[in-house]
């Protein structure tokens, strides 16, 4: 059975890895039912080949290389090569042709290493050890269906393919770059999110300010900036959200729920709940769980 063919030549896809900018000249996928005659590429062109199935022989610069499922190879500038298929088991091939537009100096050692390895490797042949097949299959799927967001998805997939290609070249060399750390603002947002998610029952503006290392006024401004709410409004929202969850998923009494979310009395909780949802906690539970008759405030 012939696999579906992909032949995209007019899609303006460029990817950037640090200072390396690659223009994707074409993306192809198909089955070889006849051999591909000897050819070579321009001074800035690199052709990536991945064989998901079938067998063949690559002839590159006069040497034969046996092709099997999982074979990966790159033919760069001036590498004369010919692909011969085995007609009894014809090989399928994913092929991406890149044109190098720029390779500028980049401060990130990982990106610089990827760029240099890609540009300097004009020929490489081996078995894929980075599980590239799912990426090529997803690439074919995106190009064929063109669902919303497919262009950006295609770019990201090709970026991953290039990175994994270079990992094959370098035999999984370890990174020399440190993982980027969160900024102080990022850390503070996580603290705020977790505080309202887990400590809503007894959270005060003073406690939150202390956790953040900010003044009370700075904390109030930060919450207003990120949520468009005051501290009190955000805390009430967290309490009410938790109360609704408990009302609809547990058999706790309404009084127990009120205490759990930080209210000092049942009356205080019932008043706050009705003001927020415009219905009582008991009515809310009855509507969401009609089989539950545990109603203690109206």
User: Helix content range of the residues, please?
Assistant: 40-55%
**Cα shape:** elongated
CATH evolutionary superfamily of the largest domain? Jelly Rolls
Major sheet attributes:
7 strands, antiparallel
Q: Which percent range describes the beta-strand content?
A: 15-25%
Counting structural domains, the number is 2
What's the tally of helices? 10
Which series of helices and strands comes N to C? Answer: EEEEEEEEEEHEHHHHHHHHH
| Terminal-residue CA separation | 69 Å
Label the structural class. Answer: alpha+beta
**Average pLDDT taken over every residue:** 89
Q: So what's the CATH class of the largest domain?
A: Mainly Beta
Named CATH topology of the largest domain: Jelly Rolls
Architecture of the largest domain, according to CATH? Sandwich
Q: Which ranges are low-confidence, i.e. pLDDT below 50, for 5 or more consecutive residues?
A: 291-295
Count of distinct strands: 11
Q: What would you report as the Rg, rounded to the nearest angstrom?
A: 30 Å
């Amino acid at each position: 059975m012939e696999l579906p063919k992909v032949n995209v030549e007019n899609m303006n896809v460029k990817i950037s890895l640090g200072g390396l900018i690659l223009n994707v000249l074409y993306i192809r996928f198909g089955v070889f039912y006849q051999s591909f005659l000897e050819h070579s590429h321009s001074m800035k062109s690199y052709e990536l080949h991945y064989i998901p199935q079938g067998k063949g022989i690559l002839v590159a610069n006069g040497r034969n290389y046996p092709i099997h499922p999982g074979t990966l190879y790159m033919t760069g500038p001036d590498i004369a090569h010919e692909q011969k298929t085995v007609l009894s088991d014809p090989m399928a091939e994913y092929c991406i042709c890149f044109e190098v537009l720029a390779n500028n100096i980049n401060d990130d050692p990982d990106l610089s290493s990827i760029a240099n390895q890609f540009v300097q490797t004009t020929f490489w042949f081996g078995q894929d050890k980075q599980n590239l097949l799912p990426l090529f299959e997803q690439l074919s799927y995106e190009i064929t269906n063109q669902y919303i967001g497919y262009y950006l998805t295609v770019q990201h997939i090709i970026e991953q393919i290039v990175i994994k290609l270079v990992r094959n070249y370098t035999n999984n060399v370890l990174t020399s770059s440190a993982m980027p750390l969160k900024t102080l603002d990022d850390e503070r947002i996580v603290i705020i999110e977790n505080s309202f998610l887990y400590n809503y029952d007894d959270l005060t503006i003073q406690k939150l300010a202390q956790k953040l290392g900010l003044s009370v006024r700075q904390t109030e401004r930060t919450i207003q900036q990120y949520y468009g709410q005051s501290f009190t409004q955000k805390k009430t929202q967290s309490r009410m959200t938790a109360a609704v969850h408990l009302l609809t998923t547990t058999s706790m009494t309404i009084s127990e729920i009120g205490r759990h979310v930080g209210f000092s009395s049942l009356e205080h909780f019932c008043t706050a709940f009705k003001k927020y949802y415009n219905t009582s906690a008991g009515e809310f539970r009855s509507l969401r769980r009609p089989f539950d008759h545990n109603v203690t405030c109206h």
